[in-house]
Design goal:
The chain is α+β, with helices and mostly antiparallel strands and about 260 residues long. The chain is built from 3 helices and 17 strands. It has helices at about 15-30, 55-60, 70-80, and strands at about 40-50, 90-95, 105, 110-120, 130-135, 140-145, 150-155, 160, 165-170, 170-175, 190-195, 200-205, 215-220, 225-230, 235, 245, 250-255. It has a 6-stranded antiparallel β-sheet with strand order 6-5-17-16-13-14, with no helix packed on it. It has a 5-stranded mixed β-sheet with strand order 10-7-11-12-15, with no helix packed on it. It has a 4-stranded mixed β-sheet with strand order 2-1-4-3, with no helix packed on it. The termini are far apart.
Amino acid sequence: MFDIFKKGDNKPPQDVKAVRAAILSFVKKELQKAEGGEGRNIKGLYLYIVCADNERHMYEAAVYLDEADRFKKDIQKIADDYALDLPDGWLMETTFPAEMPPEALPIKGLDAGLFIRTKENTIQKSATAYIKVLAGVAEKKVYKINSTDGKVNIGREKNAQVNDGFFRTNQIAFPGDKDPGNKYISRQHAHIEWNNENGCFMFFADEGGIPPGNKVKVRSAATETLNKLISTQIGHKLDEGDQVILGESAVIAFSYKG
């Protein structure tokens, strides 16, 4: 099958086989960087496809979207050929988001990008941090969170019934009757979670906080860059002073200082 990796021109692929070949060639090139035992640190591959509606069927066929694990087996074959020693249970996920996540590596000539999630050496740390409400009306002005808290949910109302009919508890809650701007915050908007591998708090958008339903924007205090979270799988590492906009107007800030 690896004749597909022969070099060709840079014209965009025009059919299913060419799209599949281009994606696998890119994956092969990126996986080769994990030779020498680094493959065991790979936890998952995330393929993002942002294509026109009239091309979606071609991309879906290229990644065998209707055949569970078939595309993953092709990638496993590449990993085995290069003795990359991927761990048991590594994840292969393909999604069609409205926008390309900033962490994804663009695949040249395709409307697609790849993100490889790796497992770093475990860092045994603990921490306490504070979430300060700068705009919008929450139940409290300042929330104290700890690395032992697990998921700290953020959303509209303390106890909110979500799409599957069950109730979710939002530890950081913006009551809908307290401020008109709170109506733009979803009931399951986002959450904060401690990452023990990297020793940091991570901010994730939840189903209600990604387009087209709603939005989460993070401004990094260190770099002053603005990031839109458009995937529930890729989080933002929270650093001192980072600010997050929830919906239209609510703003919270992250700090390790009380």
